[in-house]
């Protein structure tokens, strides 16, 4: 399989990287932690036009979300382009065109109180991303059925999490009936959602590796750069290897989804597990490489650590995806939905 980016994809990556570097500095992320409404400015001015990636190849959306992860981008882009729009497109909903065009924003409410991203009979939906920043919530009801409801008509309650730049909520399931939803659509879009989050995790891991390597070159201890010490070198190498594995896994899974390959179900579980593992490892070891400065509020590392652990829990943790992968390998009749 050829992982080489096309000229158009290279341009996409370069454009996204330049956009986020200029328009999403750490000061904006810190500002959103104090006032989540600031995130809508970034989306409205610079990211709304990029929601259209949700209607194209998964590879392109993953490339863009990797760059978003590398700056801990706040705002409803992941919720709209990675979760809401793909579900509406797959379901053939009348709002799908407006969602892909960026004319409306939205998020999804799938998991019950147990946090599993599949059909639930619970009266509430948890892990609802950035509900306070969007226009609509796509609620998956038993059946399964889909109800796209204006957020103003729902009882939305914020939940405090590690991630200071992204909001999570619990939403009561509305009484209005939804439109029937093909169970296969829920599985397929659940996999796209999981891979979207995995792509963001790859960007987080990349920033942590690059930043830790740069610090190890500059920080001097005992008259030598700390990067010359074998113990530090081992940590940096392990971080880099985990990142490379996750980047390759996400790329392969995205291509498998685009090709409709039968291996896409296993590939997505591998990608989300590897991406979560890489980001968490890079966050843990990156703090140790940085030493005392890495534990301070003034350093940006904690922003990435927070997003890494929050994203790892979103759409299925490392352990959960390994369990689903095992089921696929040993039980052909297993449930492949993601949480």
Helix content range: 40-55%
| Count of helical stretches | 11
Q: Major β-sheet, in short?
A: 4 strands, mixed
Q: Beta-sheet strand percentage?
A: 5-15%
> What is the general shape?
globular
Query: Which regions are unreliable across 5 or more consecutive residues at pLDDT < 50?
Result: none
The helix/strand order is HHHHHHEEEEEEEHEEHHHH
State the strand order across the main sheet: 1-3-4-7
Return the domain count: 2
How are the SSEs ordered, and which strands pair?
Blueprint: H1 7-23, H2 26-34, H3 39-47, H4 58-69, H5 77-91, H6 96-100, E1 106-109, E2 124-129, E3 136-141, E4 145-150, E5 156-159, E6 168-172, E7 179-180, H7 183-218, E8 220-221, E9 224-225, H8 230-259, H9 264-290, H10 301-313, H11 318-330
Parallel strand pairs: 1-3
Antiparallel strand pairs: 2-6, 3-4, 4-7, 5-6, 8-9
Describe the 3D structure.
The protein is α+β, with helices and mostly antiparallel strands and 339 residues long. The chain has 2 domains: 7-181, no CATH class; 184-330, Butyryl-CoA Dehydrogenase, subunit A, domain 3. The protein contains 11 helices and 9 strands. The strands form 3 sheets. It has a 4-stranded mixed β-sheet, covered by helices on one side. β3 (136-141) and β4 (145-150) form a beta hairpin. α5 packs antiparallel against α7 (183-218), α9 packs antiparallel against α10 and α9 packs antiparallel against α11. The protein is globular, with a radius of gyration of 20 Å. The mean pLDDT is 92.
